[in-house]
Specification:
This protein is an alpha+beta fold and 154 residues long. It is 25% helix and 31% strand.
Length: 154
Amino acid sequence: MQWQDSEQISRTLETVFNGILATRLREVPIVNPALSVQAVGFTRFNEDWLGVLITPWFMNLLLLPGPDSDWRKQLPGSKLVRRYPYGAFEFTLASEAQLGPYAQCSLFSPMFQFEDQGMALTAAQAALQGLLTTPSPRTVSRRDLLRGALGGHK
């Protein structure tokens, strides 16, 4: 798939993963019924589109390939390391028929620590902001980054 802009990405991801929720994950106990599918903050970063996907069963950093992405033809299950201002992160390649290839890095799974969508959205935005910010000299663990515990926010 050729990704045009963040609106197209959000609409497509939300449609596909709502379909997965309604079919493959219907009545599966790892689903937090207080949450919904939401694509957050997708923007271009180098050759890829980067954002966070919130679902009732996981929250992942997601990469969608741009036209010049070198990994778009690699097999699902392959690993990919990408560097961001915060540091290097490993992604696992996956594919869905309606999306094509994408790469994911787990932030949370399952999602029962979130009481509502607002809490999940705040964590997703903090993780994305942290990823794209050069860390201060103080030591911040990857776990703190993924939990949005940067700059005194938790």
